[in-house]
Amino acid sequence: MPIFDLFFLALGGLLLWFGADRLVEGASALARRVGISELVIGLTIVALGTSLPEFLVSFTAAVTGYSSISVANVVGSNIFNLGLILGGVAMLRPVMPERDIMRRDAPILVCCTTFILVCASVTGSLPRWAGAVLTLTFAGYIAWLIIKSRMEFAAVNASLQTVLSSRTGSTLNSPVLPGEPDRTTAELPLWRALGGIAAGLIALTLGSRLVVNGATAIAAWLGVSEWLIGLTIVAGGTSLPELVTCVVASFKGRNEMMLGNLIGSDLFNFAGVLGITALLRPLSVDASALPNLALSVFTVLLILLLLRLRGRLGKAEGLLLLTFGLGRWVLDAFSTPPL
């Protein structure tokens, strides 16, 4: 067995864990420093950072003339995120979402996915005007999130300042985000928070590349077919940053950031990645992608239904999502012939 490949696989795993830890801690500290919630940080900085592999793969595929790969990568990654990652995390620890996830963020994801599905069904492509609509929608959504969160954050801290001042005559020295599990990251200076985020993203990128390359080499050495390697290791490789970041965030009690990362990543993939790519170069959408686009809409609706009925995602709901995601993966393996 190739020793160096095993070493790179192990090193990649360590880098993934280290990167996720630094990203979560840095993002949490940044949320306090700039006065926005961890949910918004998860929906923006963390989601965009962990979605960089999907963006690079999709953009490169599109500009080199393989637009079907671009669309397939995004759709497959989104179903992987909500089925396998969210389902797996829910089986480890219960997931209890913020109200904004159900009322604001998930419905926007459904609308963007439905828009792409309808556009692709009618025109067989994502033209530039559709890319412009998606890009502007995503940019407006991010701007609105930040502005709204800062206003709410300022209002909460003003109320706390008033109460504390009236009772003790003192004031708060640092901002407070309601519902956070601890305040240790609040003491980090801004440069360390930003440095932690940057170091985390770099480590996640390098770690995912090392894991994919090492696992691919070992699988090939064991005689596994290129088709199976591509379907499993390479397909799941671009979602490794989201997977490890969500697991770390969940065990650190950063539920808002974990959910924000998943929903934000999927929204960025559809509205940001496909939107920007289609704006630069119109994308043709193969008819075989339409069922999976519809499946993406169904997955989000299923999660919303489970949350509405149970108020959280526990082991049973996690197992359902995990089975759903794995089932889709197996169906793809048998329905799509190897090249």
Automatic annotation (TrEMBL):
The chain crosses the membrane at residues 6-24, 36-63, 69-92, 104-123, 129-147, 193-221, 227-251, 263-283, 289-307. Residues 6-146, 193-323 form the Sodium/calcium exchanger membrane region domain. GO terms for biological process: intracellular calcium ion homeostasis. InterPro entries: K/Na/Ca-exchanger, NaCa_Exmemb, NCX_ion-bd_dom_sf. Signal peptide: none annotated. It is found in: Membrane. GO terms for molecular function: calcium channel activity; calcium, potassium:sodium antiporter activity. Its main location: membrane. GO terms for cellular component: plasma membrane. It is a multi-pass membrane protein. Keywords: Membrane, Transmembrane, Transmembrane helix. The keyword Transmembrane applies. This is Na+/Ca+ antiporter, CaCA family. It comes from Oleidesulfovibrio alaskensis (strain ATCC BAA-1058 / DSM 17464 / G20) (Desulfovibrio alaskensis).
